[in-house]
Design goal:
about 70 residues, alpha+beta, two-stranded antiparallel ribbon
């Protein structure tokens, strides 16, 4: 809220998920698309600046139906 984010964010205090994604330092941001694939990995504080360009197209595109 402090930075005006309107997307969900998860925290990983025990680094369980971070280790699976190859965490190389903090802050570290991983964007996962609706299909479960990694869309972006951002190291450092540039995430605040870069996330809108990454997330806006993702949230504006229609959700794809899961394949069966």
């Amino acid at each position: 809220r402090t930075h005006g984010a309107t997307y969900l964010a998860g925290l990983d205090p025990h680094l369980t998920v971070a280790n699976r994604f190859g965490l190389r330092g903090t802050p570290y941001t991983v964007v996962i698309g609706r299909d479960g694939r990694v869309v972006a990995r951002i190291h450092g504080e540039s995430a605040l600046r870069r996330l809108p360009r990454i997330l806006d197209p993702l949230v504006q595109s229609p959700a794809e139906a899961p394949s069966r």
